[in-house]
User: Which sequence fits this backbone?
């Protein structure tokens, strides 16, 4: 059954079918020269074939590796061609067949069908070269300068058949783009084939005048050259590595990244190959460094570097240490959403990797903030790409760290009141020990508020008020006893009245602090309802300030979509419906519209905080049980 | 010819591993059923010696050689995990094959034998019982596996060899050099010194 399925797959995929057909035809062609078995080859000729085979196997082992990319160039074609010119096609094919047998041993990791395919292709090439050589007046066994055209045309045929057979394969695999494939091919192998032509002519002369001793000399020179080239290649790579790698993390360094970015931007312009770029910055690394010292901080850096490397390498991403505790990743062929998903996954992996001493960090684990950006036509310079991703990364930082932000999708946060955000964040940090839910809730509401401020195009002042207000809106809950806040059962009437008081406590808190008294409306009035049934004052419609109405929507949305003791968690979709249903009664209908649009956009992007997904999953499990 | 591969292998092995650790490595060579090899060699010499005295051995000697070959091949198969042994196996097998299809004797081509002692050629031509060779002619099967490769100057020895011999020697060479310079011997070295 399994075999049948495999055969069906082969028949359906053109490239597989091509490989199978080519291999079969090649081996039939090869066999046709030696069937029926009576091949009359003298003992002398056999010795030659043995020697040629040894040569091919040796040259296959001592491939030429050329810097920079390490194209491996085997010179076995030289021997095949020389054999054709001096001894004829049958010895050449026998040499090919026997040497393939030994080469299979040499390259055990190569798939068997690739050897088979190679055998078939070489058969076509050798037979074709021989045919053309004889047609153009070449004679086997002698060397005259008048054969020169025959040599050249024959080699051209050898080369063309090679390009045609391999080109067709790539054409089938990569569907079209023939010109591009051919251009790449010719650029890469033409020079190599030129040298093969010259070397094969030298070998022909050596073989004719000195017999196998000529081959012996040739092989010694080839082996020595291959050794020298290998040394050169290794040396080049050693130096290259030193120049391009960051010693601490094993990732690429800043200058290599810039070089690569230039390359990617170039291919984007020329061929339209999209890619995304991400900047990563370790959260609170300074704190870790200060506490444990720089050597330990270095260890953390190389630890994170190794994770990034391990995660990126399978995909062929370029990852580099940009500087200090900043890393950068280039993701070829990735759009911004795919890129965000990947970096987010990377973030989770980093979060889940234990490391000594990270419990002192605010998130209790290693974490980073990241900004992602997709290359677009407006970006003309790598510095722009880096700068904008960097900005998105800072937005992630200001949204509470340990998050990934796509540039352009999310808000740009005025740096002016960043220190105020930090200050208020310190205030709500008290909740970490008292009521973790309120802490996380405040951070989420803050994050939504940042996005909404951008979406609504608020002015600087309003933006500041909304964002800071969102962060601090539940500060009054500090006055409410822990048991009430974390109670899982339904609250009694007295307790409920107490909870309601938190808006007033919050207001008093802000008034006492002085500096943030302008946030009072948001803190005090975020539980007022549009139809006038809210608390504490029962204000109605536009009596409630606009920003408080907006905060009310955001606050309710987060409460709906997260786990509360006294209600069922809703999905984003369900919460959107709820807001829609209550717009006009509980919520301002005008402000509900943009907010719903914003949430829908996030659903489309599959950009839902995973703690919420996690809670939903747990709830489903409970309901299922 | 069998000795050439061993000799060259040893020389290269000592150059690569150094005199002392090369010797230690040689001392550490382990072959499964290794004791059988000298035994096979003794049996071969015994047969060679006996064929002059006992006509029974003179007649059936070639078949005894085949048995020796089968024993040798199976030993190599058991040890195939070592580097070079697979080549050695292939070489021995090719020799075995051509002898098997030619009545237990190795065919020697006249051209290749021309590098040898003329006395030997005379014996080949007359069809005298020669311990395990036979002249290669048109009736020979798989002639290309026979002793058709003449060795002579600049090579220091005069000999007619087969492709099986060549592969065999390459195998032996790989085996010895890899054994003499393997990482394992470097680990073993301190322990041996301590002992």
Assistant:
């Amino acid at each position: 059954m399994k075999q049948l399925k495999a055969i069906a797959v082969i028949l359906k995929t053109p490239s597989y079918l091509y490989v199978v057909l080519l291999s079969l035809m090649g081996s039939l062609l090869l066999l046709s020269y030696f069937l029926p078995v009576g091949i009359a080859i003298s003992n002398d000729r056999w010795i030659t074939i043995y020697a040629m085979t040894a040569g091919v196997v040796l040259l296959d082992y001592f491939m030429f590796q050329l810097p920079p990319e390490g194209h491996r160039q085997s010179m076995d074609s030289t021997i095949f061609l020389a054999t054709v010119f001096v001894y004829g096609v049958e010895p050449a094919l026998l040499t090919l067949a026997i040497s393939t047998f030994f080469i299979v041993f040499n390259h055990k990791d190569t798939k068997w069908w690739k050897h088979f395919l190679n055998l078939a292709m070489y058969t076509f090439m050798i037979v074709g070269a021989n045919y053309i050589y004889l047609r153009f007046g070449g004679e086997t066994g002698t060397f005259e300068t008048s054969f020169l055209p025959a040599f050249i045309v024959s080699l051209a045929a050898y080369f063309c058949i090679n390009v045609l057979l391999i080109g067709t394969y790539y054409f089938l695999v990569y569907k079209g783009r023939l010109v591009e494939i051919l251009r790449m091919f010719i650029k890469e192998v033409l020079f190599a084939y030129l040298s093969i032509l010259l070397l094969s002519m030298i070998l022909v002369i050596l073989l004719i005048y000195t017999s196998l001793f000529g081959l012996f000399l040739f092989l010694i020179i080839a082996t020595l050259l291959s050794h020298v080239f290998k040394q050169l290649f290794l040396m080049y790579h050693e130096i290259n590595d030193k120049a391009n790698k960051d010693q601490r993390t094993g990732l690429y360094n800043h200058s290599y990244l810039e070089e690569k970015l230039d390359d990617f931007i170039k291919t984007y312009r020329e061929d339209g190959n999209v890619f995304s770029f991400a900047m990563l910055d370790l959260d609170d690394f300074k704190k870790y460094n200060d506490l444990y010292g720089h050597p330990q901080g270095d260890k953390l850096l190389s630890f994170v570097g190794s994770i990034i490397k391990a995660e990126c390498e399978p995909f062929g991403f370029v990852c580099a240490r940009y500087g200090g505790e900043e890393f950068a990743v280039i993701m070829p062929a990735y759009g911004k959403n795919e890129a965000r998903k990947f970096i987010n996954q990377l973030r989770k992996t980093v979060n889940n990797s234990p490391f000594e001493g990270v419990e002192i960090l605010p998130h209790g684990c290693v974490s980073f903030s990241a900004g992602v950006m997709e290359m677009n036509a407006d970006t003309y310079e790598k510095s722009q790409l880096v700068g904008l991703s960097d900005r998105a990364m800072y937005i992630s930082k200001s949204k509470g760290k340990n998050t990934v932000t796509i540039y352009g999708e999310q808000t740009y946060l005025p740096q002016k009141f960043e220190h105020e955000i930090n200050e208020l964040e310190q205030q709500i940090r008290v909740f970490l020990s008292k009521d973790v839910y309120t802490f996380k809730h405040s951070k989420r509401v803050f994050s939504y508020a940042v996005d909404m401020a951008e979406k609504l195009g608020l002015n600087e002042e309003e933006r500041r008020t909304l964002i800071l207000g969102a962060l601090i809106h539940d500060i009054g809950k500090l006055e409410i006893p822990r048991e009430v806040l974390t109670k899982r059962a339904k609250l009694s009437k007295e307790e409920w009245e107490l909870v309601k008081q938190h808006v007033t406590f919050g207001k008093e808190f802000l008034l006492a602090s002085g500096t943030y008294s302008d946030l009072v409306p948001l803190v005090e009035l975020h539980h007022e309802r549009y139809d006038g049934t809210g608390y504490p004052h029962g204000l109605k419609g536009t009596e409630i300030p606009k920003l408080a109405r907006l905060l009310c929507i955001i606050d309710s949305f987060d409460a709906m979509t997260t786990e509360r003791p006294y209600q069922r968690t809703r999905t984003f979709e369900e919460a959107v419906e709820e807001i829609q249903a209550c717009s006009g009664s509980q919520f301002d209908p005008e402000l509900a519209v943009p907010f719903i649009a914003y949430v829908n956009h996030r659903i489309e992007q599959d950009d839902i905080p995973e703690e919420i997904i996690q809670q939903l999953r747990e709830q489903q499990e409970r309901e299922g049980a | 010819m069998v000795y050439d591969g061993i000799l060259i292998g040893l020389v290269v092995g000592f150059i690569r591993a150094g005199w002392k650790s090369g010797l230690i490595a040689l001392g550490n060579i382990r072959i499964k059923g290794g004791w059988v090899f000298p035994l096979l060699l003794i049996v071969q010499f015994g047969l060679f010696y006996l064929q002059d005295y006992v006509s029974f051995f003179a007649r059936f000697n070639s078949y005894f050689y085949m048995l020796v070959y089968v024993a040798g091949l199976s030993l190599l198969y058991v040890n195939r995990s070592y580097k070079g042994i697979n080549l050695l196996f292939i070489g021995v097998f090719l020799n075995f094959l051509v002898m098997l299809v030619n009545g237990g004797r190795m065919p020697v081509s006249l051209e290749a034998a021309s590098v040898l002692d003329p006395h030997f050629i005379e014996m080949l031509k007359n069809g005298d019982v020669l311990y395990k060779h036979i002249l290669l002619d048109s009736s020979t099967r798989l002639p290309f596996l026979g002793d058709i490769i003449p060795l002579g100057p600049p090579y220091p020895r005069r000999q007619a060899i087969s492709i099986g011999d060549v592969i065999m020697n390459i195998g032996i060479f790989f085996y010895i050099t890899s054994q003499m310079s393997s990482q394992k011997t470097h680990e073993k070295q301190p322990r041996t010194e301590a002992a």
Notes: Chain A touches chain B at residues 41, 43-44, 46-47, 50, 54, 105 (CB under 8 Å). The two ends of chain A are 40 Å apart (CA to CA). Strands of chain A lie at 64-66, 71-73, 275-282, 318-323, 326-332, 368-374, 404-406.
